[in-house]
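User: structure tokens for this one?
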Amino acid sequence: MLLPRFSLVVASVALVALLVAGCGGSPSPQETWANSVCEPLVTWKDQISAIGDDVTSELKSPSAETRANITASVTKAEQATTTLVADLKAAGPPPGEHSAAAKNVLDGLAKSLRQTSATVKTEADTLQSSASISQAITSLGQIGAEIAGAVAQTQSAVASLDAVASDLKDGIDKASSCKELRKS
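Assistant:
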């Protein structure tokens, strides 16, 4: 009689151990890759938001240094974008059968961000040299639109990854940094 009960206890403990091991396992290659892509996107988005707040604050209380401060902010945004593009490239191709399609999405995002960065730099140069308030306002409006569009593109890229690479969807859904991107 003792043997069947002992066997039942051992079997129960083994089952619990299997369940616990399954719950706390290491992340899948897809989840690891998704975090390597989404973490820099979240960092960049946060930096861009902070820079936007700085520019808005500067415009609310303009001073003799406003143009120079805004130009410095644009330079920070350009540096953040350059870092993001490098980080996306460093993430490499995703694991799985749809890696080429997912890589195309990220390559397209990187290209778009580089173009946005160049446009923002051009507008910042125009802002720095503009003689009139109306020219400065036009340049600031263009900078704001470009940055807002770039932030939207990063969020759209994550959704596109889900669509083109079904084998990555679970990893993207589980990656904490991708969840952070989707909240915005």
